Amino acid sequence: MRGVGACSGGMGMKLLDRDDPFFAQRWRRWLVVAAPGLWAGVELYTGNPGWAALFGAASLYAAWELLLRR
Predict the structure, then answer these.
(1) pTM as predicted
(2) Cα(13)–Cα(24) distance, rounded to whole angstroms?
(3) Dist. CA 56–CA 29, nearest whole Å
(4) Helices 26-45 and 49-63, axial angle in degrees (round to 10)
(5) Rounded to an integer, what distance in angstroms lies between the CA atom of residue 49 and that of residue 43?
(6) Which phi-psi region, left, alpha or beta, contains residue 10 (left: φ > 0; alpha: ψ -120 to 50)?
(7) Tens digits of residue pLDDT in 12-64
């Protein structure tokens, strides 16, 4: 079955796609960046640096894909 799946054709499916209609409104892009960033702060405050690093990295990735990259 050629041509089936996200990885066929050389281009894989993006995790966050800025061109998706869901992200057309700027506040949604900012919310997707802010939510894991805020949660990283909660995790750090409660003494879980591993989870804080994971959610912080997710927030940085979202910021790169949705706000900074073009």
Answers:
(1) 0.78
(2) 19
(3) 16
(4) 160
(5) 7
(6) left
(7) 778 899 999 999 999 999 999 999 999 999 999 999 999 999 999 999 999 99
